[in-house]
Design a protein that fits this description.
- The complex is a heterodimer of chains A (457) and B (482).
- Chain A folds into two domains: 203 residues, PmbA/TldD superfamily (PmbA/TldD fold); 237 residues, no CATH class.
- Chain A contains ten helices and 17 strands.
- In chain A, the strands form two sheets. Chain A has a six-stranded antiparallel sheet.
- The relative contact order of chain A is 0.13.
- The N terminus of chain A is likely disordered.
- Chain B has two domains: 226 residues, PmbA/TldD superfamily (PmbA/TldD fold, 2-Layer Sandwich), CATH 3.30.2290; 244 residues, no CATH class.
- In chain B, 20% of the residues lie in helices and 39% in strands.
- Chain B is built from nine helices and 23 strands.
- In chain B, strand 13 and strand 14 form a beta hairpin.
- The termini of chain B are far apart.
- The chains are: A alpha+beta (457), B alpha+beta (482).
Chain lengths: 457, 482
Amino acid sequence: MVGEATWARPAVEALLATALELVPSGEAEAMFASHDSALTRFANSRIHQNVAEHDATLRVRVVDDARTGVATTNRLDAEGLREVVERASAISRRARPNPEAAVLAHPSPAAVPPGLGYFAATADADPTERALGARAVIAAGDRRGLEVSGAFSTDSSTLAVANSRGLWNMHSATQAKLLTVMMDGRGASGYAQATSPDVGAIDAALVGEEAADKAVRGADPVDMEPGEYQVILGEYAVGTILEYLAWIAFSGLAAEEGRSCMEIGRPVMGSNVTIWDDGLDPTGMPTAIDYEGVPKQRVNLIVDGVARAVVHDSATARRAGTRSTGHGLPAPNVWGPLSWNLFMAPGSGTPATMLAGIKRGIWVTRFHYVNIVHAKRGILTGMTKDGTFLIEDGKITRPIRNLRFTQSIPEAFSRIAEIGSDTRLVAAEYSGIYARVPALKIDRFSFTGATSDEGSG
Amino acid sequence: MNDLIDLALDEAQRAGAEYADIRLVERESESLTVKNGALEAADSDRTAGFGVRILLDGVWGFSSSGRLERAEVERVTREAVAIARASAIARRDRVVLDDTPAVVGSYRTPVIEDPMSVSIDDRLAMLFEADAAMGRVSGVNVRQGSIETARERKTFASSEGARIEQELLEAGAGIDANAVNEHEVQQRSYPNSAGGQRVSGGFEAIRALDLAGNAERIAEEAVALLEAPQCPSGEMTIVIDSAQMALQVHESCGHPIELDRVLGMEASFAGTSFLTLDKLGTLRYGSEQVSIDADATAPGGLGTFGFDDEGVPAQNVPIVDRGLFVGYLTNRETAPVIGRRSMGSSRASGWNVIPLIRMTNVNLRPGGAGSLADLIADTKEGLFLSTNHSWSIDDRRLNFQFGTQIGWMIRNGRLAEMVRNPTYTGITPEFWGSCDAVCGPDEWTLWGVPNCGKGEPMQTHRVGHGAAPARFRGVQVGVGRW
């Protein structure tokens, strides 16, 4: 069912070419973005919301004598094209010149790998397939008397960009994601997530089992005093931390404006930390081009703990005297470039070796509602969620009630004692950022508060 | 449009739907951003489409499309039916809607000056004037200002006979000044952070902000914060300004009173709520000073409209009455659970998504503590906190932590030294129970929050919170190691 409204390549080429031809003067960029998305949501062990969406938009950026105007529409007939170009042109005529913002990407010889990140099985997934996946997850919870909630989504999208400098690139991709939260009604909960471009790679029963196991083991949590503890952060928790570093540390604009903790060429984390961004790696959630049409480059952000690079779009790259790395967001972009295909190098740790030697520590499955307390120092706050456990003498002994952390991440990542050998692809909750990351054992991590048991059943 | 509406509703009826509705929405918005003396961004967005919601055999299906054509309406309606049939694969109880009568009506946001009619030149002049004022302060490294305006036209029709036309107008603006040194980054915003103030109304609200008149002050504060002492740690009395109070209400009251969240429907995303059904009418949510309403009729609120997206008329309902928890935000599906009719807070952020229970304008009523100056004068020792910087709350809306852009110590009833990076934390009912004063109506502002996230796929929606400065005793401040 998803995919019925997908646009074919010749039609997209013709659409963008027509839009560029309509621009009366100056340079121009035309961006096409379509998506056919569906999501089956369940709660209280039943499907309660079940939705689909089909849309395609055209964004036109006109740059005339350093004056820039941008307009979008989702009316893609001849009248819609004429009207959106007219709006963008009208804005550019009234705009004041700003050469810093009037930057279009140059054509690049890099080719977009055909078929990268696109799976017909995902594009063609129907509501019955998603409902059966939901039912398999629910069954895992039912067997243990848990209330099950979650969402199973499949998405097919196309991004194409052309500009008057001769740039033309297009990439179609698919995404599938299944996540669940299971609760026992007395304060225990478990979580699991699987995400892949290929819906066939998602094992719903396995997702259900993982979350159910966490929820059962979380029964009857006890209070734990806030303080500094040795921790093991599971992959979901590490993925969330990298999501926030993408915004506050790895952006070329954050670096330019002095907000980032990245000091290029200097150690900013422990020597065992290596983080990079790679939109072309098929083990991530590939996106071959950015929203300016620039092919993605691998960017080594932190190598052996040393800050090596930040990501750029055309505007930040020009100001930094370099070239775009293919991390631009849709124009007009006041947020700066974004790394949304992150990877962290694994180590050699196993759950057993990472637990060994921890006298009294905490196992964190995931974080909830993380936010930035201080960008330049990389201080984040947030809550633990869906599986927080006490570690005593190298063993997980009992569940604990959720804790609040307030912690500088560069400091914490300078105290990583061991890194897991396995990695997992984690989808961010809010932002569309994906990170393939290992679990981490960190020697000291600061918990500054605890939740209450009010209303926990 | 009427033929497309009839087509969808007829198609749904033929498929056996016990209920169906269709929303056709057209939204246009414009935004201008001036940064460091130059026009950084100027754009105009238009999107139009429709969404069809089907209730079939007690379960929901929904589909939507941006192509407003007969064939697409037929296809999307058939898809919504197929999706509803798939929902039956994992069904428990049947969804039953309340008996809200179908309405035929219309609504338009009252404005003096249509925000979409103000010229780019006028808007840019305001932003460049404010930018120049910030630029006169030495030490500011990034200054930014923006103005956003929007118009949304929507039609709602249901198989029960509802037909509603609405035109909603919005306007918003704000400025930021940033300063950095080797170890610090500090920001001051006016009139609020996250884009400033945003209202449902006309451009007169933007003109009244006086961006330029406040620009130099916030720029000076941003620079001064670089050298200000770090906020101390410990328990103390805090006075919170009305803009930060708005976000305090949003996170610790607005979200936990959403009845779908209470019933577990949001568990897989942002969690549940401590305000379980047994708490209704029994829980002391806060002190006697605390009264909160959900008012979709409040003039100027981002959560102000004529009818919600299920066709329920806008209402003002009590949520907390002198500290006692008395009401939820509801929709037609959940209200019967507590034996009530929907109070009209079912809202979709666009044509492409389903309506969810969303905040309207969840407002802290003004109190009797007079002006902010009166409240400071009445506070012997404490900390005054202004303008939100960060926010976080747990998955049952109990443990929260906020940071504000700036704070001042209060000593002997006067504002004393400025402090940087202030934070405070608490547990929701304990915190509201410690409220011993709320300022009066002259200090009350209805703030717009344009970035409220909820649901899967996530919807970012526009809600409102009225609040006046308030005082809380014995609050933990200065969280973490600095």
